[in-house]
Amino acid sequence: MSVKSRQKLGLETPLPLALAALGAALAVVGLVITALSGPFSLGVGAGPGAGIELTALSAVLLVLIAGLGLVVQSFVGRYSIDDPRLGSLRWLLLLATVGSALVASAATLLVLAVGWLLTSAALAGLLAYRPDVPGASDTLRPALLGLAATDLCLLGAVAIVTATAGNAPLDELGTIGRDLAGARVAGIEAGALVATLLVIAALGRCAQIPFRAWLTQTIAVPTPVSALLHAGIVNAGGLLIILTATLVTSSESAMLLLYAGAATTMLYGTSLMIARPDVKGALALSTRGQMAFMLLQVAIGAYAAAIFHLVAHGMYKATLFLGAGGVVDESRTLASAPQSLIPAARGTRALRQALPALLIPVVLIALAVALVSPGLPDDAGGIILLGFAWASAAQASWWWLRLREPSGLGLALGLVALAAAVFIYVALLGGAKEILAPAIPASGDATLPAVLLAPVLALAVAATAVRWFAAGLPPGDRAARLGGLQRRLYARALSAGAWPPRRRFRATASVSRIQLSGRAGEPAPAFGSGE
Amino acid sequence: MSMEHDALTPAGEARLRAEVARAADILFPSWPISSFIAVNPLGNLSHLPFDEAAEQAGRALGAVCYWQPQQFLEARDKGRIDDVDLAAASERARAEGEAGEAPLGLEDLLEQKPDRDLELQAMSPCERLDRRYGGARAAVVEAEVSKWCAAFLDEGEASWPMPGRELGFYRCWRDLAAADGSSRRLGAGDLREAARALDDSPAAALAGSLATLGLDQGARMPILRRLLARHQGWASAIRWQSERQHRPEHPIDLVQLLAVITFYESALARCSDVEWADGGAGSPDPDGPSAGRRRQEIWLEAYEWHYRDRLLAALDRDQAVEAGAERPAAQAVFCIDARSEGLRRHLEQTGSYETLGFAGFFGLAIRHRPFAGAPASATAQCPVLLSPAAESIEQPLPGSERDAERWSSHKRSDAAAIETFHRVKNDLSSKFALAELAGWAFGPAAVARTLAPGARRRLADVERPSTMPVIDRPTPEEAEAMAIEIERGIVRELVRAHLGARRQLAEHELERLREHAAGAGPAPERPEGCAKRRWRELLASLPAAALDPRAHEDRVEQLGALGLSRAEQSQWAQVALTMMGLVDGFGRLILLCGHGSSNLNNPFRSSLDCGACGGNAGRPNARMAASLLNSKAVREDLAEAGIEIPADSWFVAGLHDTATDRVEIFDREQIPLTHRSDLLALERDLGLAGAALSAERLERLGDDSRGAEPRRASRRRSLDWAQIRPEWGLARNAAFIVGPREVSAGLDLECRSFLHSYRAEVDRDGSALETILTAPLVVAEWINLQYYFSTVDLERFGSGDKTIHNVVGRRGVQLGPGGDLRIGLPRQAVFSGARHYHEPMRLLAIVQAPLERISEIIERNAVLQEMLGGGWAAMCARERAGERWQRLRRDLTWEPWSPADPRLLDRQTATKGDEGWLATA
């Protein structure tokens, strides 16, 4: 058959791409069916014991995962067209997609574990895909070891539960947890042990402190792979806690561990991000902060909000990664844009811009909640989460006022845009909560009080306030007033975010030796190490 | 660390700086990626012959500068090199090389012994320790230096910029290193004390560290060179910043860089319990060219001349003398860029068009500021060999001021929105909810952009206002008046910002404020009904608004440098027309066509734009050139100089989009009604030519596009954010042809040749040819060598695989998460799959002009002697069509061209098999 006629028949489409397209179509069908007729199960015998279940939650997640899988498969076909190993890359990406889909739609703990391990296998393959990136082979081992350690924690938890209750359906974990509470494994209370192991697994997959080694490794791979990892794989940690919530939330120590890891990461990881001069490095560190935010939402029992964050962030981060090459063009556009004739506001004029920027969002959010989704802030947690929305809206307003100095019509249009954004946000969040409600597990007794989120919000906002203050100062004053402390903090943030992670050099095989002795006589190297 | 050394004397410092400068000649400045400039990476060694420079740089950088033997052997297996080519190359090497050398026979050349490995000339202290004792000290130093360089050279990516950059790199780094507690983890103890103890002067600190390393004197130049070579990318970027940047805000130079490098080198070497200085000091310089080097040179020559012979044979024909009786339908002047050749060839096939080639900046070295753009947004629209001689801005046409204002307001909003997004995104508290909202917009958009690229329509994009470049230089009075007008605008803005939009002041009140700010009057009274506090603030804000007499002077001076004076205009027009040989036979319509490339999500986009315009699209130059040549005054002066442009000839400006093969015409509204039909016909034929070129290009790109219409397919390709290779750029470039179009007309040169128009008979004093050979030829040589070196050593001279690129500091790319900055072209620009696409050959200049004239020009210009005598490029020439080509030997004398395959001399065969000869090359 000639090439042309094969193309006409669509036969040249690679199998993984075709499968990804099929998967995306099925996911959409699944979402429609779930929306119309409620949840249904597939697998060995319908009803109890089924392997896969399609609820509102899994249907939404499957659309995200399969959609992402399709986008990445389509993207990589043109992006990595020169890669002689493109075929195997496609299969690895597909494996990661299938594994994640299995986790998202698992009805029992064993199926979830299988999906998790499939994803891990794909993840390991993807992280090791480009050992030719300078330094990547050095950092690969610690990254994979960290992942393997946290995966072992998951396996341990699954083993304990399965030993006790067999192939446990996820919706019966609560009962099983109560049974476990009496038992002891190696002298430790079994319920708490299982919960802690699950939390460690989640922290590891979400690259939270102290398990962060593997996230930098996600930049040492082709761009579309980074996109998939950051949008579809890292967030499995949050999903794990939500799916096993009835069990995990019965242990206070596990929940405190989750909180401690996530809260530190959220503040620390984000401050490393803002010092990064490279696009992908900043995006990777940003993911860590976003995952921390999601885990905090989980910790206070705001599951619907966490899922909402997970899905939206997945689309957001995938787009930013895929488009990471556009930053040079964008900086050209910004440089050639018409400029304001007058210097930016400082002093009292800056303050005059700050006040409405702080207050108007409060009014808009209150209005939106009252009009669109009155049930949204049903507890302290809801209100604090809206506090984060306020921080974004205030930040946007302030910079818009500073950069654009609008007046009259411009001001009105800006206000309308802000109001629209706030209303859409509140409507989406409220809608998500309502749609997901039936599929969301109840949270246990040990769920943390929502007020614990308040100090995190306060610290983050305080950091922003310092930066506003600095931006409002003339450059000379800035150095004088913030000199010593700023230098210490900056040096720390820059060094901690830099790559490769610092370590004492050991008297073992070194990168530079390989480069020195092998380099000079080689032809232009081909892709990857396998060539 | 106590630095026990004598204070650095001024003489010592001068000596040290001179040594650093010499050490740095293996590096060439590397331009920021937003205006990628193709350069010869060995450009600072161009006084040496090619092979010697290659060996020097190769041994310092650990780079290869030739293809490896197996690659040449592969080319031979494919018939790309014949044995006769090898024999001829070997014979040439004997005849032109040093006396007494035995020619290398075929057996010698085919012998598959691996060439002597290029040994590093010297190693850095840490490298030497690593090699002897194991460890990764050198990698630690590299990571540290990269970290600081990336932070310092950042052009706005990090939302928390490095504090203290205005102090210069060295002092800024020292203050931070003194506060960086995490340096303990480097393995050399706490370095904060040592950093605090460092001298204020970077030269003294460098001297101190060198003394600690036992490198006070003697042969330290090779080590300095190696230290720079290990940080090749950053050092090259720093060379640009310290030597070429227009107005450096953040001072940095190589001495500062070396002070930082040697600080870490000495710290890590010192803390090891071993002596670093006892290792071998690299291998000494070999005397004379090694056998390996000679062999490589012969292989490369054979590879080059195999192609060149066939090209020359194809060009070697009796030209049908164009009677020139009929006036052409139109003339079209394109850039010399090799990609123009395709469009010219196809356009000529559609009708009686005459096409010409001229450097795409049209000889106008301008610094251009886009309409309403900030001064910092100005781009140098000329080859980097020149510095801009005039400033250019755009002003709205009379009657479209309101459109212009609306557009500029719209663009300001766009920019502010993008920037606001980044501010919200890069912050500790605001980024979380942003992701939750933006994700819902981004997700569907990403699906659409990936699955259906090109389907996206731009919504609500306000139409660009009609503007004109300012071409006439303002008189001092005009400049003064323009400056005052700008200052009135500033005052108006300030009043609006402080008093609010509704509080309007009368014009005379604004004028009083302006005079007050300029120090020419007392503060005006507070108007009725204006809040006291606000008025006070307004007055207080005046000093910071650049309204003082000095700022005014600067402004007047800048405005006075706009455009060209009448003398400059006429001079330019005469030189430009003479250079392109367009002095008579003007058509009714003459298209001046620049070029640029539209593509998305591509950090290397500017490498596809016009090199003659400094890595930018050639729009402003083409527009300015067209309006100058339409100017009555210029035409009068030209007529006096003997160049009569008929009154019914009209110049139009255009831009060839090399990614889509479309030509956009500018300033249509100014084209006389009488010429509209001519323009429509030209545009129709440009469309046909573009479609034919698209089909040809898509085939070369291996893009079958499922049988879509070629122009649609290439447009979709250019709008695809997943597309790693929007076009081939200048890959496979190999020759530079100077002469009338008849030399190459009708031949398919496969977009591999730069074409510069030239008619020896109108260039009476040879000055046009001298300019062509010393400017456009040099630019083409740089481009050619950039492609050459990026292909032969993708790791050292190329920037590696695009799919793992990480844009750093908006200035360049790193591979993955860190490491050295990468210079040169990416893999995807020169490789197709696992195989090279670009054929690494040095440029062949083919000139049709009197040989004595060429020889005289070479004699006068050292740059040409070095280039052609040193083997960086080759040259063939003939005086007129029908004569045999003459080859320029390395000793700069001429000899008749005799192809390795004598059949090529048979004009009959060669002419019949035009396409065939080239196709086998």
Q: What would your notes on this structure say?
A:
- The complex is a heterodimer of chains A (531) and B (921).
- Chain A is an all-alpha fold and 531 residues long.
- In chain A, 72% of the residues lie in helices and 2% in strands.
- Chain A is built from 22 helices and four strands.
- Chain A has helices at residues 3-8, 15-37, 56-79, 86-105, 109-127, 136-165, 173-182, 190-205, 213-217, 223-233, 236-243, 245-248, 252-273, 279-299, 303-322, 327-336, 347-372, 380-404, 409-436, 453-472, 475-497, 511-519, and strands spanning 40-42, 52-54, 184-185, 188-189.
- In chain A, strands 1-2 form a two-stranded antiparallel sheet. A two-stranded antiparallel sheet of chain A has the order 3-4.
- Chain A is globular and about 70 Å long.
- With 921 residues, chain B is an alpha/beta fold.
- In chain B, strands 11-10-16-17-18-19 form a six-stranded mixed sheet. Chain B has a five-stranded mixed sheet with strand order 2-1-7-8-9.
- The radius of gyration of chain B is 30 Å and the shape is globular.
- Chain B starts with 9 loop residues before the first helix and ends with a helix.
- The interface between A and B is large, with 156 and 161 residues.
